[in-house]
Specification:
Layout: H1 3-35, H2 55-61, H3 65-69, E1 103-108, H4 112-119, H5 126-143, E2 151-154, H6 159-165, H7 169-181, E3 189-191, H8 203-210, E4 214-216, H9 219-223, E5 232-240, H10 244-255, E6 260-268
Parallel strand pairs: 1-6, 2-5, 5-6
Antiparallel strand pairs: 3-4
Helix pairs in contact: 5-7
The protein binds zinc ion (ZN) (2 copies).
One zinc ion (ZN) binds near residues 40, 43 and 53.
Length: about 270
Amino acid sequence: MSETFFRSTTQVTDSRATSMIRAARAASGALVNLVLPPVCRLCNDPVNDGEDFCRSCELALCHSRPTMRHRCPRCAMPRPSLGSPEAADCGHCREEAWIFDRIAALWAYRDRVCEAVVAAKYPHHAALGDALGRRLAAVVVEECSDRMPDAVTFVPSYLTRRMSRGGTGTSVIASAVARQIGRPCQALLRANRPIAKQAWLDDDERKRNVQGAFSAKRRYAFSRSPEPRNRHILVVDDVLTTGATANEVAGVLLGTGVNRVSLAVVARAIRSR
Ligand SMILES: [Zn+2]
Ligand SMILES: [Zn+2]
């Protein structure tokens, strides 16, 4: 039996098996929907098949989306009006010495978005984290159209916090982003110590709070690429406040030899200076 025939026979068998698995999944999905009708991933109200959120949650979550479409690509703060996309024009980040490339941000951190972000930190809300990740992926595709990331990673939590929550919510969001954009999701970073909540601190304290708090988890993960020094890594986090954490993890990744780090966050905290 020739190798070509064997390969083509295997492919036919594989495609038949794939079709059967798809059919079984579709059937089981219909059965599950019959027994457990789909519900909003945030408030548990009934939704139509295939919808993540009820109309009320969808409107509340996406309320800031038009504003966030016109944001500074460097700090993700919304611009007051349509204008030049040059970061130099942004009063919020003009003086920041950030080393990451850009930030893709989905929503402003307020109202129901805060509820969604907090809920998605817990493993029993993994379906919500997955939905947030899929929404965020669409923004990543827009933001990184010139060069898509080669791999996706996430800002890790310290062990004790992971244990108290039962997991790392950002990893679920990052996995969904990676799946949507067709790139691997790799746990590249480690939290070296507990980190106080950034929201409680002023700008200088935030920088000190995250200084040295992260390190590269698996250096060998970088060397798997044929061009380890020419990789673009996307770091996923749930909320961006000042950019101190983003800058710190970007520094760790750039220190391993990658040449470009971008950020993707579900929500951007908006504050006036
Ligand atoms: Zn809802
Ligand atoms: Zn800016």
